[in-house]
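WARN no homologs supplied; continuing
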Amino acid sequence: MTDTHEDLTIGQVATRTGLSIDTLRFYEREGILANPVRRDPGGRRLYAEHDIAWLNMCVILRGSGMPIPAIRHYTELARTGDGTERERLAILREHQSRIHAQIAQLHKCLDLIGYKVGVYEDYLAETEPESEPHRGSEPEPDPAPEPAQRQIPTP
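OK structure emitted
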């Protein structure tokens, strides 16, 4: 497959990555981009597809809590290339470990919240037997009684 080289503007990159133009400029200043940003004769930034892929990875790392200095260090190692794989792996493993710990903590939080929801549902079921606890939606109207349950007037 041939690699087509199409220049992308900062606006196009912002749209495709979900990052603001200011964030893209910030990432450039912070040394987060794997390659230096090229410029056209008018001084406007030009990006390529590989920049999009790198930025998408950075968005995921940042969104999962990796600090900017760690992303910058990882980027510097990637730029250096061969011989830095062990250090890059160590950075990713350390981050992976932090994420596992965060997930474990979130599961504990979710367990507590689930328990408290059950406590309130039980309480409301005992104190208001004619109505069910609401689960974040409008209450459903009472269904029409089944024909066998209707009172038949006596003559």
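Confidence is low (pLDDT under 50) at residues 144-155.
OK
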